[in-house]
Design a protein that fits this description.
- With 315 residues, this protein is of the alpha/beta class.
- The chain folds into two domains: 253 residues, Glucose Oxidase, domain 1, CATH 3.50.30.50; 32 residues, no CATH class.
- 27% of the residues lie in helices and 19% in strands.
- It has ten helices and 15 strands.
- The strands form four sheets. It has a nine-stranded mixed sheet.
- Helix 8 packs parallel to helix 9.
Length: 315
């Protein structure tokens, strides 16, 4: 009788665990073993179509320059040291056939500073990440065992910039000012831009152009951006990535009724869609560029959650 009772209890616990898992995650449309999410949308056909957007032969970096003073989500920080190994006291390196001297750099940093790629193991809910990956299985202190950004193939496709500041009729959106599907559709219509599957969708709010240098404290404390409903709408369009010229893409503080950074959960965990933060898209709009070829080859640190990036816009 005790054995039967224990067996029944085990079955009940297993069923309960399965129910919790079913509620907390759903398998990816790319299969239960998938680890790269929307990067599956990178295809030769889309790459060739994106290349057709290069009309002027110009390129523009989308990353910003960062340093120890760059505001970052607490407690993130960066420290850089320049050293001259084995050259103390003016010593020179003679093994090269000449008196050589060189500098090296030592970097101690959190990766999530400045322009960055949020990988699919960055934000989850109730212990689960993208494609039902459990924190108990993947979150190891020496590096993620799944969903690391080193596995993300080069993200190449059609990039578009939606000017949300112009849509709102202002130079810069204010802290906590949010936008959703209605505003996104309106901005696209005003710019004559069609949002397509596999696009890299970037939003311009003016936040970085106006505040990054002149008011860095404010820049890092709050931001305008996407609301929860807007994230659901974007996920329905099946983009490759969603980004903005802000450090967190979403409005901070969020609008009343919204959950903080829940768009991250919607895009990363629920749909495998990458996030691109602090994208320097203002210069593109100044040149009248709404669509371009987007190319990103991130650093490949095994098991990393995020990646410092400098994508290139070709137009």
């Amino acid at each position: 009788m005790k054995i039967v009772s224990k067996f029944c209890a085990a079955v009940a616990l297993s069923a309960a665990a399965t129910t919790v898992m079913a509620e907390d995650c759903k398998p990816s449309k790319w299969g239960i073993d998938d680890t790269i999410g929307s990067a599956n949308l990178v295809t030769p056909e889309r790459t060739l179509m994106a290349a057709e957007l290069i009309k002027q032969g110009k390129s523009m970096p989308l990353g910003i320059t960062i340093g120890p003073d760059t505001p970052a989500f607490p407690p993130r920080s960066l420290s850089l040291q320049i050293v001259q190994p084995n050259q103390q006291g003016g010593q020179k390196l003679t093994g090269f056939g000449y008196e050589g001297n060189y500098n090296d750099d030592v970097l101690q940093t959190w990766i999530g500073i400045g322009s960055q790629l949020d990988g699919l193991g960055h934000l989850g809910e109730n212990g689960y990440y993208y494609n039902c990956s459990s924190e108990k299985e993947i979150s190891v202190i020496t590096g993620l065992t799944k969903l690391g950004t080193h596995d993300v193939p080069p993200l190449i496709g059609r990039g578009i910039v939606l000017d949300m500041a112009a849509q709102a009729g202002v130079e810069v959106l204010q802290a906590g000012q949010s936008f959703g599907s209605a505003e996104i559709k309106d901005a696209a219509k005003k710019q004559g831009v069609e949002i397509r599957e596999g696009d890299i969708i970037l939003f311009y709010t003016g936040w970085t152009d106006v505040n990054f240098v002149d008011n860095p404290v404010l820049w890092g404390q709050a931001e305008p951006g996407l609301d929860n409903e807007g994230a659901v709408y974007l996920a329905s369009l099946n983009p490759m990535a969603v980004g903005a010229d802000t450090w967190g893409v979403e409005a901070v503080p969020p609008k009343e009724g919204d959950k903080v950074f829940y768009g991250h959960v919607t895009l990363l965990k629920e749909n495998g869609i990458y996030l691109l933060e602090t994208m320097n898209v203002g210069p593109l709009l100044k040149e009248g560029v709404n669509e371009f070829m987007f190319v990103l080859g991130q650093n490949r640190i095994r098991g990393a959650v995020q990646a410092m990036i400098n994508p290139v816009a070709l137009y």
